[in-house]
Description:
The chain has 3 domains: 2-40 and 63-69 and 207-279 and 392-439, FAD/NAD(P)-binding domain, CATH 3.50.50.60; 85-197, no CATH class; 281-388, Polyamine Oxidase, Chain A, domain 2, CATH 3.90.660. The chain is 36% helix and 20% strand. It has 15 helices and 20 strands. Residues 6-12, 29-32, 37-39, 54, 56-57, 226-227, 250-252, 255, 284, 286, 383, 386-387, 410-411, 419-421, 424 line the site of flavin-adenine dinucleotide. Residues 11-435 form the Amine oxidase domain.
Amino acid sequence: MKAAVIGAGWAGLAASVALREAGAKVTVFEAGHTPGGRARRVFHTEFDAPLDNGQHLLSGAYKHTLALMRRVGRNPDALLMRRPLRLASLDGRFHLSAPRLPAPLHMAIAILRARGLSWVDRCATLRLMRGLKAMSWTPPRDWTVLHLLHYHGQSEALIRQLWEPLCLAALNTPMATASAALFARVLRDSLAGSREDSDMLLPCTDLSALWPDAAARQVTMRYGSTVRQIRPSPEGIDINQERFDAAVLAVPPTFAARLLDAPLREAGATGLLEALKAFDYLPIATLNLRLAEPWRLPEPMMMLREESARGHIGQWLFDRAQLAGDTKAGELAVVASAATGIADRNRQQVIEALIDQVAEQAARHPARLPSMPEVSAAELFIEKRATFAAVPGLTRPLNSTPWPTLALAGDWTDTGYPGVLEGAVRSGLQAARVLAPLAG
Length: 440
Ligand SMILES: Cc1cc2nc3c(=O)[nH]c(=O)nc-3n(C[C@H](O)[C@H](O)[C@H](O)COP(=O)(O)OP(=O)(O)OC[C@H]3O[C@@H](n4cnc5c(N)ncnc54)[C@H](O)[C@@H]3O)c2cc1C
């Protein structure tokens, strides 16, 4: 089978691996020049090593992603730093750490021993987990995360300290509009699964080097090749007027809607077209900082306290030097999720406020961290359409289309996950399965 994949993000590349394994001759069309899509390597002259377009965190529950890495010959144990779940704020006021005990004891003990939560809040946290389990981890489809938290009697302090940063990290959507069902799914997989599922996996290389580079080497890549026309039919599919037996369209839904507008109308599949057009997006900003001297944080990933009125909009801080094993100089990444409106603000002021946030909160740490060294380089990446807004009641398209020769893939398809890497990978693998009958 001569197969095409459009889009070399994690979904498209996962599809390309599975199609190649099924015996297809695979060509990947990618508008950009680097494999990885929204999770890819970026070069910057003032930084010694490559950066990412945005700092990412994986979890032990990302089973398909970890298996796929091995399938293309990459070793997740060497490329990802695996840490038991530990949420520690840079100012030292909050600390939650899962001991190496079997599930669900590890989570119960982590919550009961959490520093910075009152006893009432610790019990409320356990109550929420029990309540979700009693709902079989499926709260009503129209509930928001805030609705769910209030329903289970979570206090404002607990929401602000624990649930808000977790919701933003997992769904990139504010609690007041985020889907409770998707949040519950993430909690179920990562906190209520096995102890290993709750582990945090932190990339030690750039994101393309994790596995997209290796996957890209196994197929024919056409970089800088934007697909502008698709003509699917039951017999085959024309892509930019070139004939293939089958294809996976693994681009964001807005682009998919544009490419499939006429074919879907002709096929009378306007429901799918409307679903593709219905997604909204939210931005994520990542500030990369190179420091003049080494500066090792107590944890490779730490929580930041938000105070948006002062521009302190970061939620998480990553010690990238620690992750890369670089002892010469400090390197940090500050992440601000759901950073609506950030692209319209003065860039330099955004950078300075985030640096101030880190320096100020580190200075409050009770272990007296050395003060933050001078910043020698700063690069702010703003991904305006980082993920789809994970709101209640979204209709997420399936991988199949009206044509047996075309499958859809992307984190936005009906994966049950919010817009995350594991969802993208699963979707790509599923799209390849949809086309499997043609391969035989
Ligand atoms: C800043 C940031 C931080 C994130 N943090 C996390 C995290 O910590 N953990 C996590 O699990 N997830 C995170 N995510 C989400 C994760 O990156 C995405 O879920 C995932 O990368 C989506 O992959 P995809 O293949 O579905 O889509 P994409 O990566 O968007 O891939 C689509 C590809 O199609 C290409 N393309 C588009 N149109 C065309 C065309 N016409 N012709 C050819 N090519 C085309 C694009 O260039 C792109 O490479 C984050 C995302 C961002 C942006």
